[in-house]
Amino acid sequence: MSLKDENSLDELDFKILSELQKDGRMSFTEMAENLSVSVGTIRTRLNKLILDETVNIIGRVNPDKVGFKCYAHIAVFVRPATLKEKVAQKIAKLPEVSFLAMTSGDYDLEVDVMCRDNNHLVNFVDEISKVEGVNQTKTTIYFKVYKYAQPDLKLLNT
Q1: Is residue 98 within 8 Å of residue 112, measured between CB atoms?
Q2: In what order do the strands lie in the sheet with 97-102?
Q3: Which of 17, 29, 54, 72 is most solvent-facing, going by the fewest CB within 10 Å?
Q4: Residue 5: its pLDDT value, please?
């Protein structure tokens, strides 16, 4: 199955996305020159990618530089298991959450958070522990983050 079949994106769409990952502020003109297509083609394609929510143009903040000094991973155990979805929806609304997923294995939900400091993290863990269905949490603090990145689109071509 080709990429186009899976995602309805063609090679040019992926090249545009790759250019944006290099520089989200890149002009249509520069992108068109880099990809050897017209500015109108870039504008049309990018507007479609934005409209269908394939890409969102945002300013990505370096958390450490703006004051988030405590990153953590929290494993959440939910009981009864029928409350997983409800618990996930409540946790997803909390502003500290940067990543949330249902998992297989020992615990039910995986939550990554960014907090101002350890006290903020303690308060956050206390808050999610009070959510109906949260049976137990296990917190791991990240001492140092070595890589924080978007997915490499080239991996889809292998």
Answers
A1: yes
A2: 97-102, 109-115, 70-78, 134-142
A3: 29
A4: 44
Amino acid at 38: S
Which stretch of DSSP H or E encloses residue 30? helix 28-35
Looking at domain 63-142, its CATH architecture is 2-Layer Sandwich (3.30)
Strands (E), 106-158: 109-115, 134-142
Class of the 3-51 domain?
mainly alpha
Closest Cα partner for 41 from 66, 71, 80, 11? 11
The pTM (predicted TM-score) of the whole model is: 0.78
Q: Of 34, 36, 60, 54, which is closest to residue 153 (Cα–Cα)?
A: 54
Residues of the chain with CATH 3.30.70.920: 63-142
Q: For 106-131, write each residue's pLDDT tens digit.
A: 999 999 999 999 999 999 999 999 99
